Amino acid sequence: MAVGLEEAFGAAGEFGGGQRRLTAFLVLLQVYVACQSMLIVLVGAVPEYHIDQEGIPANGAELAKRIHFVDNFTSIVTEWYLIEQEAYKVSLASSLFFAGLLIGNVTFGPLSDKLGRKPVYISGLFFDVIFGYVTALAPSYDVFAVSRFFVGIVNGGMALVSLVLTQEYVGKSFWSFTGSLTNLTFAVGIAVYAFLGYCVREWRYLALVSNTPGVIFLLLSFMLPESPRWLYSQGKMAEAEDVLQYIALGNGKKRLNLKLKPSAGTLRKDVSAPGILNLVKHPILRWRTVILMYIWYVCSFVYYGLTLNAGELRGNLYLNVALSGLVEVPAFPLCMFFIEKSWSGRRKAMTCFLIFAGFACIFTMFVPTNAGLLFSPTLLALCGKMMVSAAFNILYIYTSELYPTVLRNAGLGVCSMSCRFGGILAPFVPSLKSFSRSVPFVVFGITGLSAGFLTLLLPETLNKPIAESIEDLQSPKYEVLKIKEAVLEENT
Question: What pTM was computed for the model?
Answer without folding.
Answer: 0.80
